[in-house]
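Students often ask why inverse folding is considered easier than folding. One informal answer: many sequences map to the same fold, so there is more than one right answer. In these notes we will look at a single instance of the problem. The structure comes first.
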């Protein structure tokens, strides 16, 4: 489906990506892992042309696009990608529905009625239809990120890029966003996912890249990368991640009944807190 060739990007004297080569097939969910500052987010931003690399090509649909320049073909290529950022970047003065509808009307020139119908469908898909008429300030971080995912999906991208979509969330809100991404992946969407959630990547991705020092150090199935890594640097990184998780304090949990309201609904739920 998509091939990235010889992608290189530097910031001043620091070479963040050094001749990256990737092949992504339709329906692949590719998890990108690695230490902070090794070019994971930059890779996604270069593919989406939010950053312009010094060199690099994308081959898609029989066309070769020079990513190092902005031109008609590269802008057309950008239209087939959708991106979900670490931050939600929702318009504060627009409702959830209006945030999802905006791109459909501006980019795809849909009528207001058609855009609204599509936006509502996508909000339903991510479990946010009940909050369609609410503004971002009335939504939790997890809810805002689900709206951002709906906004990206509404444009029907052939490649969905997710840049650490849970990193800006409180820990208790991570689960709802990961569940949404898991459901989207199960529908057959082609995705490139940068994440520090190792267990999530292991269970959702069908391919995993370990990126370090601007290079693809390891590339394989989750079983190959997580269970039987070949490179010493990958082994060291995974050991450190295991130690980090093991050092997380085990917290006691208290369960209680809670009450919440949604538009037109009154909910009673079982919740827990950690001490």
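Output (designed amino acids):
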């Amino acid at each position: 489906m998509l091939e990235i060739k010889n992608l290189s990007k530097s910031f001043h004297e620091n070479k963040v990506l050094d001749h990256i080569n990737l092949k992504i097939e339709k329906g692949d969910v590719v998890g990108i892992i690695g230490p902070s500052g090794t070019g994971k987010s930059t890779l996604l931003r270069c593919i989406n042309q939010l950053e312009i690399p010094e060199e690099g090509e994308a081959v898609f649909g029989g066309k070769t696009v020079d990513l190092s320049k902005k031109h008609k073909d590269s802008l057309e290529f950008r239209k087939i990608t959708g991106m979900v950022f670490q931050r939600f970047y929702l318009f504060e003065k627009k409702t959830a529905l209006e945030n999802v509808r905006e791109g459909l009307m501006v980019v795809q020139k849909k009528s207001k009625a058609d855009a609204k119908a599509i936006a509502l469908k996508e909000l339903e898909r991510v479990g946010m239809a009940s909050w369609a008429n609410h503004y971002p300030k009335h939504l939790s971080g997890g809810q805002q990120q689900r709206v951002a995912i709906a906004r990206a999906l509404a444009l029907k991208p052939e490649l969905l890029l997710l840049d650490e979509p849970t990193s800006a969330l409180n820990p208790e809100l991570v689960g709802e966003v990961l569940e949404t991404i898991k459901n989207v992946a199960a529908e057959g969407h082609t995705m490139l996912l940068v994440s520090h959630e190792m267990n999530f990547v292991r269970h959702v991705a069908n391919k995993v890249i370990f990126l370090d020092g601007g290079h693809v150090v390891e590339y394989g199935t989750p079983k190959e990368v997580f269970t039987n890594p070949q490179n010493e640097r990958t082994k060291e990184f995974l050991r450190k991640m295991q130690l980090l998780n093991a050092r997380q304090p085990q917290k006691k949990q208290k369960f209680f009944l809670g009450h919440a309201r949604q538009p037109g609904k009154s909910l009673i739920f079982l919740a827990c807190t950690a001490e």
